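> call design_seq(struct)
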């Protein structure tokens, strides 16, 4: 005798506002920057690009008072003019430590 199986009801999704993840990429090599931007965009990130660590620091500093604009990931090249990735990272961490 066949068993009657009831279909499971799937929950109905209503208008869910999902915040797109944000990524800051600092790299002075335009080809590397383009490849990283493409990879992150394919992963559904909103990407902001800059060419050195100082610009990365300023970009992060601008977002501190607006939680909607905070970066979910920051990718820093180690060798950059003006301010390298190591120094930029230290400066960014210092912003959050206050």
């Amino acid at each position: 005798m066949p068993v009657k199986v009831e279909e499971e009801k799937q929950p109905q999704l209503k208008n869910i506002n999902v915040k797109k993840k944000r990524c800051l990429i600092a790299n002075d090599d335009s080809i590397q920057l383009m490849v990283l931007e493409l990879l992150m965009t394919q992963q559904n990130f909103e990407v902001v690009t800059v060419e050195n660590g100082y610009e990365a620091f300023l970009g992060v500093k601008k977002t501190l008072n607006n939680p909607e604009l905070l970066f979910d990931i920051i990718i820093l090249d180690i060798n950059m003019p003006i301010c390298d990735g190591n120094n930029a990272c230290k400066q960014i961490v210092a912003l959050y430590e206050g």
